[in-house]
Amino acid sequence: MNEISNTATLPDGHPVQVYFQENDLIYQILKELSTVNPVEDFQKYINIFNQLATIEKRFARKENQLFPFLEKKGWVGPSQGMWSFHDNLREQIRLIQYYIKTKNPEKIAVNMAFLVNGIYRLIQIEETVLFPNALEILEENDWIAMRSGEEEIGWMLSNPPAPFPAVEYIHPSEDTSPRELTFSLENTSHYDEGYMTVEQVNLLFKTMPLDLTYVDENDKVIFYNRGEERVFPRSDGIIGREVKFCHPPKSVGTVLKILDEFRKGTQNESSFWINYKERLIYIRYFAVRDANKNYKGVIEMSQDITDIKKIEGEKRLLDWE
């Protein structure tokens, strides 16, 4: 496979053409970075490096847009190999960001050499293997669908690239173009963002680590999820019951005030946190309104955040073994 030597034949805004535009920008940033000494002009060096760090948007577009389309055509190599390459570069960027935070320009200079070499190597593989093969494998409708998904992720470029195809951009929320679905719609219902069966909906609610209760506009409980580890116990007798009878007497007044303000439209959310059985519980109420802003009830959500509050730093590796 020959590398792509000229992208002039690609339409403006084509995803591959945009990747090459970003390549030019990356070369420019790296050249500028090489002329600045981090010891002598630390702030200028940081400013240029921050521009380079936006390469994350490029990685995200490839991983979430380009790679999935290639997988559908049977080419899984980029998802397996190049994604790991991205992660290596991400780790290098995070390391340099740490040395920037700790103001260690000597360490920055040493590690920057590894990052720059890795970026040059990645671009070479893209231009000689990834993009030429992708242009052969994928069809125009694939590139069009891919580009529409890229809008939300963004680009390294200071200004958005030209629309592709060359028509007025349609926001995904307004895109009603039919898509080829790879799953069966039998026994499913259509929701705002997809299709699920009753079984799938029940599994979703049972698996969520949250207590959810839905009270309708008449203050009657119409739903709660039956999770494995509910914070507050519930039984099916609660369905159809007035919500004021579902809370301890000391908290009923607060609950009714919330419902009243939600119904009047003066408030939309209320939050509390309490200690319950030596656990920290986060309780939130959300007003439910239809497209015309009519009050349709309230969602009560409770979550045990005891362990979440203890989280520090980062965890990026599995610890199952």
Can you give keywords for this protein?
321 residues, five-stranded antiparallel sheet, two-stranded antiparallel sheet, 8 helices, 7 strands, 46% helix
Evaluate the radius of gyration.
26 Å
How much helix, percentage-wise, in residues?
Answer: 40-55%
As a percent range, the share of strand residues is: 5-15%
- Gap between N and C termini: 42 Å
Q: Please state how the strands of the largest beta sheet are arranged side by side.
A: 4-3-7-6-5
Shape: globular
Query: Main beta sheet, described?
Result: 5 strands, antiparallel
Number of helices: 8
Mean pLDDT: 89
Order of helices and strands: HHHHHHEEHEEHEEE
What does this structure look like?
The chain has 321 residues and is of the alpha+beta class. The protein is built from eight helices and seven strands, in the order ααααααββαββαβββ. The chain has helices at 15-34, 42-53, 55-72, 77-101, 105-137, 140-153, 198-207, 249-264; strands spanning 188-191, 194-197, 211-215, 221-224, 269-276, 279-289, 295-304. It has a five-stranded antiparallel beta sheet, with helices on one face. A two-stranded antiparallel sheet has the order 1-2. Strand 3 (211-215) and strand 4 form a beta hairpin. Helix 3 (55-72) packs antiparallel against helix 4. The longest helix is centred in the middle third of the chain and has 33 residues, at 105-137. The mean pLDDT is 89.
